[in-house]
Amino acid sequence: MAAQWAIIGGTGVYDPQLLAGPRAESVNTPYGGVEVFVGRHAGVEVAFLPRHGRGHSVPPHRINYRANLWALRELGVRSCLATAACGSLRADLAPGGLVLCDQFLDFTRSRPTTFYDGQDGQVHHADMTDPYCPRLRATLALQGRQLGIGLAEQATYVCTEGPRFETPAEIRAYARLGGDLVGMTGVPEVVLAREAGLCYASVAVVTNFAAGLAGRPLTHAEVVDAMRSATEGVRRLLLAAVAAAAAAPCDRCPPAPAGIEAPAAGAGEGHAH
User: At CA 98, angle to CA 44 and CA 198, rounded to 5?
Assistant: First the structure.
């Protein structure tokens, strides 16, 4: 049976045991192999993909985003929920809070960002007016209210290259541009999901105030610790959203542009998990 749903677990969300009976599956893609866990929840097959690989072994700028999203598409996934650890650029988005992203700013530099490299002899453009699926965002917001989980329902996510943290000057610039959160993994994941025809939403977990706002240096350890304390609420929210929206078709996201083709031999990235 095809997996209808996927959960992409970011920093601190590694355990496929949030699903019933998870089994490991290796998916070969034109961009490399990907290990995905497939289990069940609310009567549907759900794929779980640890974004950074087992043991958080792949840094954000080396994640094979194209292989990951292609693998989910191959499994039959049509709706995808992702988690992301983020720094906050706003005083009212405090550590420990959960936020639904609705827009993004892309400051990555070295990542392949599209499936459409012209290999089919055509140019394709994906609409990103609503980069995050409105249906999934509305479902997450409703389930958060019903579970008593506080959620900020709109935020602009700034994606940086990593793996370094940002400078205070960069954070001030991002805030002036309208950024609310900063992280290292949301792009090109959200773009590739749209190109692959997947409905996609991201639940951001605020782990710290961004550089220059925290009053002290930032460490990866504090990010992991903050994520660990928020994990149970995030799991409850994601699973409730899957159960609530499992049978609901989406009429809000544009269809995938035609023409995703396998890349030429040797074009894969080779950094899969």
Answer: 40
CATH number of the domain enclosing 15: 3.40.50.1580
CB atoms < 10 A from the CB of 167, how many?
A: 12
In this prediction the pTM is 0.90
CB 152 within 8 A of CB 96: no
Contacts of 256 (CB under 8 A, 6+ apart): 126, 194, 195, 196, 197
Residue 164 inside a domain? The answer is: yes
The answer to the question of residue 134 being in a domain is: yes
The single residue listed with the structure tokens 């640890």 is 50
Pairing, β 20-29 against β 32-41: antiparallel
Which element (helix H / strand E) includes 9?
Answer: strand 5-9
Give CA 61 to chain center in angstroms. Answer: 14
Q: What is the pLDDT of residues 154-178, one digit of tens each?
A: 999 999 999 999 999 999 999 999 9
Cα–Cα distance measured from residue 65 to residue 72, given in angstroms and rounded to the nearest whole number? 11
Q: For the chain, what is the mean pLDDT? A: 89
The predicted-structure confidence for 90-145, as pLDDT tens digits, reads as follows 999 999 999 999 999 999 999 999 999 887 788 889 999 999 999 999 999 999 99
| Residue 71 belongs to domain spanning | 5-114+126-245
